[in-house]
Amino acid sequence: MPSTLPLGDPAPADGLLPASTAVDAAHRHFGVYLHVPFCRVRCGYCDFNTYTATELRGVSQSDYAGHAVREVEFAARALRASGVPDRPVSTVFFGGGTPTLLPPGDLTAMLGAVRDAWGLADGAEVTTEANPDSVDADDLRRLADAGFTRVSFGMQSAVPHVLETLERTHDPARVPLVVGWAREAGLQVSLDLIYGTPGESLDDWSRSLDAALACEPDHLSAYALIVEPGTKLARQIRSGQVAEPDDDLEADMYELADQRLADAGYDWYEVSNWATDEAHRSRHNLAYWLGHDWWGIGPGAHSHVGGVRWWNVKQPAAYAQRVLAGESPAAGRETLDAETRHVERVLLLSRIREGVRTAELGDAGRREVPALIADGLIDGRAALRGSIVLTLRGRLLADAVVRRLLAEDAAERTAS
Fold this sequence. Notes:
By secondary structure, this protein is an alpha/beta fold. The protein is built from 16 helices and 14 strands. Strands 7-8-6-5-4-3-2-1-9 form a 9-stranded mixed beta sheet, with helices on both faces. The longest helix is centred in the first third of the chain and has 18 residues, at 64-81.
């Protein structure tokens, strides 16, 4: 089942935001995330807020684009009424689920609503996720003609038994075909891979890397499999049906990926993401890591504007009821205090290639820097230039590095 929503304060039905969200808004990028919560099958490892046709109750998949358009229109009104200045949208990202289970005309209508509400910035990045078996050449041409610039294919693996364990339904031989069709349509291409699947060997992972690199994507993401509580995979591991992922093997897989990608001309720019050059980085995801503003459209989607974060109701029927009534679909929200914003900023910026500025750390965090250099976790030359940048070993232990940068600062603030 999908994960539960966080706890928070009640969200007003009119969607109005505190006056503080308008401060300096003109200096922050604005993005839109559109969640399409539909999948043909539910993969055993997934806890995203998605629904198969048999799981939908009281709402039709064919009506979804209209509901999303209603929220886009609501969002534009709510931001203006809150005093947040209009900004052209820098990035648009259709995620899910499988957005391309909807016909191209529905995705085009949703993008058109965003364009009508705020306008698109010059050179705006417009991405959709897709499964290799959810699009054909005509679909991709129609999306490109409508203004999409980028497609991210959920490849996950090139090895049949790994795909079977993950319950992915596509034929790995189809990946080169869809990449070729996307290129012919003029779209940039990203491939998503998962490593650490139970039963996957280092040789299996090497085969997947070979297959992905043979497609020559502009961008590649590689994520370690996370066993989420409540998923089918978690139950299988608990019952002994499949083995738990091996942390040491996952570290070997990450190191192999980083080396192979570097040899092929890809540069890491975030712990789990590589691109052929800076122009092909995912600007939408970078906006998340840099703390910019975005409005999340759809059931269970999360939003952030000026230090206020909120999340929508999860069930598509409840979501539809609210947006059709002209009410906010938000289930709850929180206003981030200064300490939380500091912690999140250090956590997120430390994951990207440019790193976090040493000046943004507290005194205790700065005192950790020499030891982190000595432990081979951060780059000494970057530290001399005033930035905390993870080494390869540091990327493998990123959470531990952040704890060291923040733990003593938190203790000092508590003591004071």
